[in-house]
Amino acid sequence: MWLVIAACLAVFQGTIGDPSCASCKNWKDGVLNVHIVPHSHDDVGWLKTVDQYYYGSRQGIQNAGVQYILDTVVSQLLHDPAKRFVQVETAFFWQWWQEQNDHMRHQVKQLVSNGQLELLGGGWVMNDEAVTHYQATVDQFTWGFRRLNDTFGSCGAPRAGWQIDPFGHSRETASLMATMGFDGLFFGRLDYADKTQRLKNKTAEMVWQGSPQNLGKPAELFTHVLFNHYSPPPGFCFDLLCGDEPFIDSKHSPDYNVDRRVKEFVDYAKKQSAHYTTNNIIMTMGQDFNYQDANAWYKNLDKLIKYVNAKNPDLNLFYSTPTCYLQAVNSANVTWTTKDDDFFPYPSDQHSYWTGYFTSRPTLKFFAAQGNNFLQVCKQLYALTELGPEDWADLTAMREAVAMMQHHDAITGTEQQHVAQDYALRLSRGFDECHFATEAAVTKLLTINSTQPTLDFESCTQLNISQCATTESSDRFVVLVFNPLSRSVSHHVRIPVASSSYKVSDAVGVEVKAQMVPLPEPMLRLPGRVSPAKQELVFMAEKLPPLGYTTFYVQKLAGKSMLAYAEKGPERLTLKNKFMEVSVNEITGELSEIVVDGAQQTIDQSFYYYEGAVGDNEEAKNRSSGAYIFRPAGDATKVAKQAKTISYKGPIVQELQQTFSPWVSQVVRLYEDDPHHLELEWLVGPIPIEDGKGKEVVSRLAIDWRTDGIFYTDSNGREMMTRKRRENLTEPIAGNYYPVTTAALLASGEQMLAVFPDRAQGASSLRDGELELMVHRRLLKDDAFGVSEALNETAFGEGLVARGRHIVKLGSKSLKAEQRRLAQQHNVLRPWLLFAPTDLTAKQFAKTYKTSWSGLSAALPPNVNLLTLEPWKGRSLLLRLEHLQNRDDDEVLSKPVTVSLKSLFSGFDVTAARETSLGANRWLSDVKRMEWEIDSNDIGLDSNTLAGGLDDDFNVTLTPMQIRTFIIDVTAKKV
Ligand SMILES: *[C@@H]1O[C@H](CO)[C@@H](O)[C@H](O)[C@H]1NC(C)=O
Ligand SMILES: *[C@@H]1O[C@H](CO)[C@@H](O)[C@H](O)[C@H]1NC(C)=O
Ligand SMILES: *[C@@H]1O[C@H](CO)[C@@H](O)[C@H](O)[C@H]1NC(C)=O
Ligand SMILES: [Zn+2]
């Protein structure tokens, strides 16, 4: 085995600058080089589940079996060293690899090191780019890369992005891929009009500036828009699934077609080449789940190459790969145009804007977000407590389940119903495994001596519907609040309980202020909710330790009810704390006014719905709204003119519960200690369809500001994108929708309004001062882009009900500087709660266990976050630090910041640290990316940030928005 790797390294080192282990020098000067790239697009779940696709079961739904693809492709490659193939989705590859014997594995390693089998993309899945969070994307690549590196060594490191199917492309993806060390990115889907124009003016290849304001050159990525999506030229799909005409080359056959077929191909190649700059073009020879019988493809490709080359000395066809193509194009020394925004939204024709999937399946999207949150907690606790390798498998289940959720037909909601259920099942198993690991970790941390009773912790995953077995049924229980952030935060804990009087004590046994709030009536009749809890106990977990926990002790009291009475009188219409005052209109019951620091703002919030367009999908103008497409039949209708309201006030939180209709309600919540922070918890569904119409529900905020058509949305939770409302679109509403993963903002002068959703949603500002987020959708007609089902989700025999949270902040410009931290604290990396019943008293409990603990020796500065901490190989750990601020955000926080790794952690010292590229699969010192000339001035920011060094104390300096990745060795601190 080491011989193979050594050979591969030799090739690699012998050709510095050559970005792959393979020798690619097949292109020639003075001719048109046609790079024939055999590939198969293998969705990790869509119409069938992952396993159905892998094994090839349920062929009646779709004829697709990935195991056959890999079997037959590998056998073809072994027979002919000229042939090549690109393998993309590591989830499938890994499943196949584990089934191979040593002989086969040895052969496949050779195919990888000689470049015949090129690993491309290489993430666990081909992730969506609109509704994913960058943390989950980085993780899913890291996990795929890790399997590849462990298997193939450095030749297994993918060198290019292959995002051929995702429905639009985010700038953040370009930034991440550049810092993973990729040399280029290929994709297929972009605005049809943009594509036409780019082909016309030869800008279908460009240098995409992934972080023009912050990272500069290290985030630039050469980007190629594929000519014919990811398909072969029409008529040249030789797969058994396609049925195109094969080469019939017997001269005696009456069907002999070589001359005609060659001419058709050459005409097409020349037409294509007229749209690209160099004398190279790439031909994607594959389709969805092609190559189950690879021989059919390769046999005809062999003939294509042979006959075209024989008859056309000005053409050079050869088996190639995307990275070989990049090398060829790079060597042409062209100066490229640049792009510094993104490829959203994606309309595939005048009426088909792919902006519905930003919201489709809102509860699956929330589950995915929670999955990332818990995975981080689980990995951190695992690493901090050095759980033994025997628990290794537990972590992997969750890593793989969360990674799989990022697939472009998973988190997007564009899969069939039974597949959505399969993803949810896998994720739920991941939760179980992670819960097991988390419980083991906190038990270890809580333990002072081994004779104390162990606590049986529950991680209540149904807190979002105010349901939790332990808290509902125990008279005394412990709440452990774990903070995954590397800074201290405070958090309001809400616990569903069945009685009406409780006492809460903190980690040292001192009573803390607590309050009870009745659950809104619509919650009590929520389909599927089985809980005796009619109220929630609320208290503040103050100053949680960074990367650590504290515990609270909750005891049921016999005394009189703590439940607040509903407010009467005019106070019932106003919520107020020391920072702000929020009022609802007496007649409509809608939010009407906010007073912040004495300044009054008229602000209105209500729910509306669009009726989904219905058509036969035969022509663009007859497109239906569906899982992918948002196409409203007209303007939005208000759900109700009036909301019934009821309000409760207490020392910790004031709540105003609004009921708009039997299927839309909301809680407006103002916590005592949260500055300028309003929580809107919406409950929507079952969306009625008795009138035969599908509906798409939005929450719309309107403030009396002039915003000049400008609003801001996050790109995968990281940098913000400026959006400008476009007029004169064929779809003026859907065409102005953008994805929001963590934040949407409006600005006017020195003021800002921000909304932080707890899951990804579509959003727009259709009129000045307005911000709307689509929270739920239920449709009765398919949009004919393949999923073949209407997006009509049901649960418990009714239309699906979704509950979620919008945190609304009104503030100054500094909100822009704070937004990422706020999104992390409230949504992305929310404190994780664990519950356990106990027989001890509060005092006994505080004495018996280690009730408070931090994994860090000190909090990190406010502009730095520990993005990743997880067990890696052997006893090493994987560590990522990120700078949270933009360059122009803030005078202080936007400065570069230095963190010393050496004694960062409370339990161990860092004894060695080696920096890698973002995906943790290449030592940073080995990464040499291709250089591309660009036509505009380079932004000139730290063009060398990627090569940052590390001193003896492991001091790490981060520049604005930079992420740095390290593999560290640690040794336990001497006590
Ligand atoms: C990748 O794999 C090779 C071979 O196993 C190993 O030597 C190298 O350290 C790995 N790279 C990283 C960044 O882990
Ligand atoms: C080419 O078309 C694109 C897309 O419309 C446009 O952004 C760009 O400015 C054009 N470039 C040139 C050089 O005409
Ligand atoms: C591109 O530039 C390199 C380095 O300057 C040079 O060696 C090479 O010949 C050039 N290639 C072409 C096609 O001009
Ligand atoms: Zn796909």
Number of strands: 49
Bound molecules: 2-acetamido-2-deoxy-beta-D-glucopyranose, zinc ion
Report the principal-axis shape. Answer: globular
CATH class of the domain at 864-972: Mainly Beta
* Helical proportion, percent range: 10-25%
Name a few traits of the molecule.
binds 2-acetamido-2-deoxy-beta-D-glucopyranose, alpha+beta, disordered N terminus, 9-stranded antiparallel β-sheet, Immunoglobulin-like, about 1000 residues, binds zinc ion, 49 strands, single chain
Topology readout:
Blueprint: H1 2-14, E1 32-38, H2 50-55, H3 66-79, E2 85-87, H4 90-98, H5 102-113, E3 117-119, H6 134-152, E4 160-163, H7 171-179, E5 184-187, H8 192-200, E6 205-209, E7 220-225, H9 258-273, E8 280-285, H10 294-311, E9 315-319, H11 322-330, E10 335-336, E11 338-339, E12 347-349, E13 352-353, H12 362-385, H13 392-405, H14 417-446, H15 469-473, E14 476-483, E15 489-497, E16 502-505, E17 511-512, E18 514-518, H16 521-524, E19 535-544, E20 548-556, E21 574-576, E22 580-584, E23 591-596, E24 599-611, E25 637-638, E26 644-649, E27 653-661, E28 664-671, E29 677-684, E30 695-703, E31 710-714, E32 720-724, E33 738-740, E34 744-748, E35 751-757, E36 761-764, E37 770-778, E38 794-795, E39 798-799, E40 802-812, H17 814-828, E41 832-837, H18 842-848, E42 852-854, E43 864-871, E44 877-883, E45 897-900, E46 908-916, E47 933-934, E48 955-958, E49 963-972
Parallel strand pairs: 1-8, 1-9, 2-3, 4-5, 5-7, 6-11, 10-47
Antiparallel strand pairs: 6-7, 12-13, 14-20, 14-41, 15-19, 16-17, 16-20, 18-19, 20-42, 21-22, 22-23, 23-24, 24-25, 24-30, 26-27, 27-28, 28-29, 29-40, 30-37, 31-32, 31-34, 33-36, 34-35, 35-40, 36-37, 38-39, 43-44, 44-49, 45-48, 46-49
Helix pairs in contact: 1-5, 6-13, 9-10, 12-13, 12-14, 13-14
The structure holds 2-acetamido-2-deoxy-beta-D-glucopyranose (3 copies) and zinc ion.
Catalytic activity: Hydrolysis of terminal, non-reducing alpha-D-mannose residues in alpha-D-mannosides
Keywords: Disulfide bond, Glycoprotein, Glycosidase, Hydrolase, Metal-binding, Signal, Zinc
Cofactor: Zn(2+)
